[in-house]
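Why run this: before we spend reagent on co-expression, it is cheaper to look at a predicted model of the complex and decide which construct boundaries make sense. The entries below are exactly what would go into the expression plan.
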Amino acid sequence: MTGGLKIRKMARNHSRRLLRSLEIMPGAISWSIIGFFVLLAVWRPVYCAVMIIVFDFYWIIRTIYLTTLLLLANRRLAKQRRRAWLRSCQKIPGWEQLRHLIIFPVYKEGLDILRPSLEALRQTHYPQDKMVVVLAFEGRHQPSAETARVLEREYKDAFGSLLVTFHPDNLPGEKRIKGANATWAAKRSREYFEARGIAQERVIVSCFDADTCVDREYFGCLTYHFLTVERPHQASYQPVPVYNNNIWYAPAFARIIETSASFCQMIESMRLEKFVTFSSHSMSFKTLVDIGYWPVDMISDDSVVYWKAFLHFNGDYRVVPLYTTVSMDAAYSSNFFKTIWVQYRQKRRWAWGVENFPFLVRGLAKNRQIPLPVKMRRSFQLLESHVTWAIWAFVIGIIGPLPVFLGGRFFAQSAIGYNLPRITGLLFNFTMYASIVWIVLSWTILPPRPRDVPWVKNLAMAAEWVIVPAVILLLGSTPALDAQTRLMLGRYMEFSATEKSRKVV
Amino acid sequence: MSVDQKIRTFLYYTSVSVFLIGLPFILAFSLSYKFDRRSFKFTRTGIISVKSQPPGATVTLDGQQLPDKTPMSISDLLPGMHTVALELDGYYPYERRIEVEGGKVARMEKVILFPLRSDTQQVNKEKISFFWLDEQSSALYFITRDENTLFRSDMDGGHFEQVCTFVPIAPAPRKWVFSPDRSRLAYFNQHRVGITELPQGKKRPAAAETVILDFPSDVINDMFWYADSYHIILMCRKRILICEARSGAVPVGLVNLAKRNSTGFYDSRTDSLYFMDSQQALDGNVYDNLYRLEMRNRVYPFTLPDFINLKGLEQRMNLLDWRPEDKKDGKKP
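The model came back. Tokens follow.
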């Protein structure tokens, strides 16, 4: 073996070991914290109680802080949703030269899902002739051909262009994931634009889930921001995802979780230094091409594409929040337990975003341009957010009462043993009070009640927030811990489309 | 920076400040430390947790009335003895001196305040001579003064009703015992056992079928129903008997007792009889021992009346003075 080959092999092994270490790190930290708390509860219940009280107090402060951010975001959303964005765009020279590339990666979704999405596009307050819509089907799903034919016939004149692509199966280096399909569609779109002499700089690409119904002002809002922000190609544009398509028909459990997910995104939109793209979003097509499109072998393509751009632009890349909504389907199934399972799987897939951590750290290690403090801050923020996600519900819901049960007589007689349940109870009561704010805010993002839904449902929707503690215990941390454990053990997840139900087509 | 971002920054630093400033106080409160504003020092204190039955009593600590009522906790107490008094209108006052230790909770959580006038009410509606409480059916049972009628009522005396009449025995029975399946009632005096079939369902016959068993040569001290509700176990002065609950049944001696008037208990869950007896040890002294006689149903599922004939039981206990051969020979135990 020559010296060069040897060095390359060593480097490959070193890189592989580094990657595995980084994959193990989040799960190992989360499990260590949980294990540490449990052992402490058994051997040193007083120390454990002190740490739980610190955590509880931190969580109360954090809840106040985040709920205030939510209120601010909600106020912004209420204000900007009603704005006539197209009129604002028309005042900016050159707006008419912009083209919108809208990609819908489709797997098994049929006409019942795709028609409303395309219909929502058709009804936007934006010239449809500036839109190039791509229906990106998976070649391996045979019935898609018929769906494509029907939609082409119905919508061929509705937009500037309607392209249909079929992503071939088993391309080298690819996994069966959404990002691979979207990348294939983006490459075909690039050929389309090059053939027509349309510069990539003039194209904004939006990658939407198949069930995404955009707000009527979405493209006006997006165009306005693209034209007015500094360095528009160094930004992604993130709307507020809501799950309104079937929200009135979804069971309480699913509704609470999906509304909470929308709230989380609204809160994140106020924390710009941590803001990362999620689900349906938009960005410069030129940037997408420059960074090599979406990842074709990672499930969390929506966030990885942000980190790719972040590394490409040496840390000078950001997410601009759009205070307009894109509406998707709430995930639920035919019965309560199936709904829990569907929701669990969906949250686990979201939590699989922890795979971004090794990707980011490796990228940062190779990059010499990004300042060290920025590298450390961003990687710590990513790691901290995932670890907190995986442990917080355990610490509050399960480990919190442990010292009382395992602490024995000595602990029961101590002042802290007496005060611990009271402080934990305070946190619980506080959460219930905070949920009043969440109830009011959840109404503000609800779509109008369909006619076939009785008005009593309004009351039911308010009352159902009492199940929040149960939701927290069931789906607060478990999916994240599951995802991190899988990554830690090298049991990599496969992409699976979330089962969704829609009553009204 | 937008206005919202400025607000957010302000909120962030405010939250961090509140956390950092508030945390020492929260921890001090949790660990029962009191902050002395004069000396700027934390002093370790204790807590008294006070609960009373009924709740709502006024609490006085070292002669000073506190604003809260029970259940409550008194915190920030310096270590040492403290006097806690509880008062509630219509109840006897309660007072106790209790020691408080730093960082610990002294508990006064089992205080019962007794009413000044006891809330006593008559439960029976007939002249009765005896009663007992049946926890299984949450009911009170009464025997009338003439010893031949059984009444039943709720725990508060409501739904007072006659269950049945039966044949009395003289002298008056010592005890009344229901069979485990509640189909029979047994009662006994020194030499006689009465067993009455209880009416089942809504049917309430005026006179129930009663069987009287006589034991002229024994003195019955106690009686238990066997788990099958068909046999009775009699603790007699000199021996332990088992007998079918039917007329003409022949009793079987389970154990001959060296100790007179021994006590015994039957555990229906394990199907075991526990009893005291005396035994002479190697040192020549006589000691009292506790014995357990296993009479497991599962060993003899279909031959319950004959179970004592089985060798296994005999070998296990080695206490029987009666042998199976005796029966074969036609001898009575």
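Residues 298-333 of chain B have pLDDT under 50 and may be disordered. The first strand of chain B starts at residue 33 and ends at 36. Bring this page to Monday's planning discussion.
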